Amino acid sequence: SRYVFDFSDGNKDLKDLLGGKGANLAEMTRMGLPVPPGFTITTDACREYLHTGTLPSGLLREVEDHLRLVEARLGKRLGDIHEPLLLSVRSGGPFSMPGMMETILDIGLNDTTVLALAARSGDERFAWDSYRRLIQMFGRTVYGVPAELFEAGPGDTAALRDLVATYQKVFAEYTGRDFPQSPREQLYGAITAVFQSWNADRAVLYRRQERIPHDLGTAVNVQAMVFGNRGPRSGSGVAFTRDPATGRRGAYGDYLPDAQGEDVVAGIRNTLTLADLSRIDPASHVKLLSIMEKLEQRFRDLCDIEFTIEDGDLWMLQTRVGKRTPAAAFVIAAQLVDEGTITLDEAISRVTGDQLAHLMFPAFDLDAAPEPLTTAVAASPGAASGAIVFDSTAATAADGPVILVRHETNPDDLPGMIAAQGILTSRGGKTSHAAVVARGMGKTCVCGAEQAVVDPVAETLTVGTTVLHAGDVISIDGTTGHVYAGAVPVRSSSVVRFFEGELSPLGDPLLAAVQRLMTHAGHVARLAVHANADTAADARRARRFGATGIGLCRTEHMFLGPRRELVEHLILGDHESALAELLPLQRDDFTALLREMDGLPVTIRLIDPPLHEFLPSLEDLTARVAAAQAVGRDPGLDGLLLAAVRRMHEQNPMLGLRGVRLGLVVPGLFAMQVRAVAEAAAARVAAGGDPRPEIMVPLVGTVQELDVVRAEALEVLSRVEGAPPIPIGTMIEVPRAALTAGDIAHAADFFSFGTNDLTQMTWGFSRDDVEGAFFGRYLDLGVFTVSPFESLDTTGVGELVRTAVERGRATRPDLPTGVCGEHGGDPASIHFFHDVGLDYVSCSPYRIPIARLEAGRAAV
Ligand code: ADP
Ligand code: MG
Ligand code: MG
């Protein structure tokens, strides 16, 4: 097989084989740009070396053949005592791993060739400076000589010659052998060291963080040296074809005269700008700009480059499609469309939902931030400051902004979470209740702050020696996980204000780009985007963010607060009057929602959670009853409630009396809700509106359940005059429902996948119980690469979704299908839902723009 490619043989599409650097050096060579000649040793060779521990047979012969070509081209030879060729040996894998691996410059220098270099260049100082750099880099990289042993910087020629002697001594003392005088030994040693650097600790760690596979290996680029350190007419620089921070047009760069290699980024001396270069060396500057333009045309994107000028000659040493901030990504994509370089379809594929999410978070002004108190899990991005509160009641009662601080949260904390600016917990990870709910609400959350001691009774938050009390201000950064004492100034997101209609995109390149790409995403998307929203206020926001319907209105949220009392009555037996009182309240809720979403579908889910979730906790009731009995008072209602809670207690509420099961067991409950929906719709019709409610039955496992509910609902609907036709569909969230979807479709006007429950039931674990218990370990072990609650498990749970769609549509070809779990707002999951042919995804209001963008991206 072939292990070595001359730069003139490769191209930019061979990144897997030649690495990113090698592939693009080859591309530039093919384009006729000034690239010092050289060749690339493939990642195949690296993988084989890492596997066997020896260089593949035949590799060295190929290297020698290619070396001869380079020597012939330049009229120099490696180790020649008159015309020595010097080489750089550079790592470069398929994915960029900045600064993670090794580069060795000036290979080929020894005690003899250094004199030839001095004579040829007429610059002794330069020759000795290059030699001491080689000993330093070679010693460090190939023999692991600690960098700090090579102390002291450049001086005059004599000083540098002495420095070479000193470095050679350091090398010999540390390694027990002399610095190799054989240029070939240097070259092979360097190649081997680059191969090995693939498995250096920091490289392994970096790959783990960036999810880059460990088995790719690195390529090695061997290239003739050019010298930026040959005096004032020479230098080295880095440049971008556009501003990578804002996307603004125009070349940006740093240049350092009389410098080599990493001097520019090392911050040893102050760098100059490209404008300075245009004064120092106008010819090179003009050439550089024209090359940058060619590169942009070839790569059709922002490029970053590394270049060197040797005695007035410009050389290109590297280019790649450059990293950029999320804002720049949007601006550049739109610019490239304007410039006729890419299509709008390509433009939306150049940005991601995650980047858009980033642009929607408020952020702290980091220049104004103090040292963080502690750093924990960055669970839901954003920046929030407020007074500490330790419970939901205090949060809802507070006037100003508050941060809710808890050990962990549960559904009872919901009102507090809604009222708070942000949530801080001392337990739980990225998938804890606090994290999931906060992300859904677009609310800042830092969780799992293990160094923080939360004492809700004493109302203190202690971190080390710092004790904070209720009312003290803290700031949390959900992007970094930092927690600060005191307030940190916040910048609000202009993109959110634009979506809210508060800012015009006119004259603002970022907002104009966001608008343009979002509009195009909407044109090409096949998936519609609906909102999970229970209140008119949420619905309004969802519409502003571009939702074209409500995919999930959870009616149980309408039973909280003062209405709990009615649920107590319902449970304690006074069914009819409780339902009669609930009816008008629900009707008003639905009327407001239908008014807000006039002309758009509103999918209303009948009550889902077990009724005992609406009662006070067993602990509270026991205490209250005991307190009453202690003073000889009749515990009254509390006594009855306590008995009811004991009676209704469930070992596994998630698998208990809930969803459709409640509807079949509690007489009149579903009928009341259906009637409220129908009467609300009739009221809207009477008011001249266009209500489009749909009724959704949760937790169905068999068509028989749905048949009963459907018959009852149709009967109720037939008795409400003036209501429009109201479809009755079901959630698919029990595995059995997915498998029997063909039967269920006979009784369902639509399917909506409840992927949260479907995930729990397919895996057999409950979200609330497992995240703290073993998810961290599973992620470490690689059992999961991402929590299946964050991103749909497409191989397992996804297969059920696919099956249900197929079987449902076999029964009813025009069956509408959607998804209303958390996954409806997750980019990777959205692409899957597009692929299996769903009609819409539904997600929380703040995720809607992200889902709209991803729905478009999935379609191009
Ligand atoms: P990294 O992957 O860390 O960017 P590089 O392989 O690009 O490492 O090498 C770092 C620097 O070394 C380059 O930016 C360039 O300045 C210098 N360098 C590499 N090859 C050569 C060469 N053939 N001639 C001159 N300088 C070189
Ligand atoms: Mg580089
Ligand atoms: Mg569910």
UniProtKB/TrEMBL annotation:
EC number: 2.7.9.1
Pfam families the record matches: PEP-utilizers (PF00391), PEP-utilizers_C (PF02896), PPDK_N (PF01326)
GO MF annotations, alphabetized: pyruvate, phosphate dikinase activity
Cofactor field: Mg(2+)
Domain PEP-utilising enzyme C-terminal, first and last residues per copy: 514-856
Keywords, ordered alphabetically: ATP-binding, Kinase, Magnesium, Metal-binding, Nucleotide-binding, Pyruvate, Transferase
Catalytic activity, reaction form: pyruvate + phosphate + ATP = phosphoenolpyruvate + AMP + diphosphate + H(+)
Residue ranges constituting the PEP-utilising enzyme mobile domain according to the UniProt record: 401-481
Organism in which the protein naturally occurs: Actinoplanes sichuanensis
Matching NCBIfam families: PRK05878.1, pyru_phos_dikin
Family from the record: Belongs to the PEP-utilizing enzyme family.
Protein name: Pyruvate, phosphate dikinase
All residue ranges annotated as the Pyruvate phosphate dikinase AMP/ATP-binding domain in the record: 16-55, 61-270
